[in-house]
Amino acid sequence: MKAVGLALVGFFLGAIVGGVAGVICGLIWVQAFHTSSFEGYSGMLVFFTFMPVGALIGGCAGAAGLAYAASRESGSPPQRSAE
C-alpha cells in the first residue's frame, strides 16, 4: 500500500516537473527551428505538444521511481523462529 501511495505522489510531482521540462524543450525547439508565430502557432506547439508529452513522461518516471524506492526500503525480512 505504501508503494501505491508513493507512486501516486511520484506521478503528481513527476508530471509537474515533466511539464516544465516540456515547456523548456518546446521553447528551445521554437528558437532553434525558427517556428512561425503566425496566429500563435509556436505557442500552441509548445503548450499542446511538448508540455503534455513532458508531463506524461515525467509522471511515469516519477511514479516508477518512487514506487521502486518504496519497494526497496522495506528493511530486513522477518526472522524465522529456531524450533
Describe the structure.
76% of the residues lie in helices and 0% in strands. With 83 residues, it is mainly α. The model has no long low-confidence stretch (mean pLDDT 89).
Summed up:
The protein is mainly α. It contains two helices and no strands. Helix 1 (2-32) runs antiparallel to helix 2.
The count of DSSP E runs of length 2 or more, i.e. the number of strands, is 0
Order of helices and strands: HH
Distance between the termini: 32 Å
Helix fraction, binned, reads over 70%
Percentage of β-strand residues: under 5%
Number of helices: 2
Q: Which spans have pLDDT < 50 for at least 5 consecutive residues?
A: none
Radius of gyration (Å): 20 Å
Shape: rod-shaped
Q: For the residues shown, what is the average pLDDT?
A: 89
> Structural class per helix/strand content?
mainly alpha
How would you sum up the major sheet?
Answer: none
